[in-house]
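Lecture notes, continued. The same structure-token format from the folding unit now serves as the input rather than the output. Read the line below as a description of shape only.
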């Protein structure tokens, strides 16, 4: 499906210069001279490269529809991750790089959504938030105010996040997977 370059929105998957790209950020610019254009920051879903491209309203790009399927994460072995198709129980292995930094948050048995293009896995979407236990938290420095100060803490998966001063080791918290930030204390 062809769309105008100025109609690209964050999250759109487009075909550009022979690659499959996801629009990450967009900025519509209307200079005093010349025509308006859309500045699009894109990430290649095959090799992870990033690029910035200007699209004018006269330019069109091919919008790509990806198939999505529910998978379950099973285990990691070296730099490969194994997932199971929840419909037919077939297993598939992917390179850890396909997930990027989000791979740190994978948990055994976690349900994920795999995006496929021509039956080939392109990306894996984890839940936006996960629950994790804090294994190590720095002590509160006396005199810090509770309103704006956060302290570093290390989660059970080794990821470092900033948490409010009242959160200590052994506490379960909810973490935003893609922003790597503290959301709230787990119930």
């Amino acid at each position: 499906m062809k769309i105008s370059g100025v109609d690209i929105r964050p999250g759109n998957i487009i075909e550009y210069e022979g690659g499959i790209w996801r629009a990450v950020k967009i900025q519509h610019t209307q200079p005093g001279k010349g025509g308006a254009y859309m500045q699009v920051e894109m990430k290649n879903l095959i090799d992870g490269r990033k690029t910035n491209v200007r699209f004018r309203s006269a330019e069109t790009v091919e919008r790509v529809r990806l198939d999505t399927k529910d998978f379950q994460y099973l285990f990691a072995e070296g730099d490969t991750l194994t997932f199971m198709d929840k419909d037919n129980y077939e297993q598939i292995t992917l390179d850890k790089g396909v997930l990027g930094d989000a791979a740190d948050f994978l948990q055994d048995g976690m349900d994920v959504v795999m995006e496929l293009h021509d039956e080939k896995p392109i990306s894996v979407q984890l839940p936006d938030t996960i629950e994790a236990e804090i294994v190590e938290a720095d002590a509160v420095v006396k005199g810090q105010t509770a309103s704006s100060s956060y302290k570093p803490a290390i989660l059970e998966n080794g990821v470092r996040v900033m948490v409010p001063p009242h959160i200590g080791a052994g506490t379960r918290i909810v973490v935003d997977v893609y922003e790597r930030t503290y959301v709230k204390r787990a119930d």
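Point for the exam: The CA atoms of residues 150 and 158 lie 18 Å apart.
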